[in-house]
Amino acid sequence: MSQKAAANTVSRKRPGREATRQRLDHLLAATAALYAERGYEATSMRDVSSAVGGSLAGLYHYCTGKEDLLYQLQYRTFATLLEVQTERARMAGTAEERFRRLVIGHLAFFASHPNELKVCTYELESLQGEQYDTVEALRRQYHRLVSAVVGELMGESSPAGRESRRSRHATLFIFGMLNWIFMWYDPARHGTVEEIGEEMLDLALRGLRRP
């Protein structure tokens, strides 16, 4: 399934009426909370219907089943993140300034969507076939967006935007820091997203040892 076709599929699930859109938003948020707490396999469509306070039959107005809910959830999460971060990367500034915007933007997005982050981290492999391929394509696009800025920071100039082994590994290390935040982050204990982001940036840009 192409990304355009996938977008059309999601848009068909989201009719223009505001009330219908809000119900789908509520459904996907409740699904994310359930999948994050119980896991995808342990959650049934009946669990979802109970969480949203609707009928089981009514859920099928918005999806074809729990795998489709997982797909819509992951597609929407990565598509929204990619769109927002692409705009940040296009803003004028040095490579370090753009890198800072991407890191803090990523943290801010997932700090406000912790359930979605957990589901996207743990449950990607639960998707199959075209749905998996479509979401994975979005993830690769996002990786390339960040990797291009990382490569620029490292002084690399690869042909046709191809990343080197070094910049690829550095990008994966950075995503490891960013994506594992849901395991420990508590604003009351650790500070704001901006403060945590600056600490991560300091580590990534300057390392553990001070000059």
Q: What's the SSE pattern? A: HHHHHHHHHHH
Structural class estimated from helices and strands: mainly alpha
Compute the number of helices: 11
Work out the strand percent: under 5%
Uncertain spans: 11-15
- The mean pLDDT is 89
Q: Biggest sheet: strands, sense, closure?
A: none
The percent of residues in helical segments reads over 70%
Net shape: elongated
Number of strand segments: 0
Radius of gyration, taken over Cα atoms and rounded to an integer in Å: 19 Å
Span from first to last CA? Answer: 51 Å
Note down, in words, how this protein is organized.
By secondary structure, the chain is mainly alpha-helical. Helix 5 packs across helix 7. The longest helix has 25 residues. The termini are far apart.
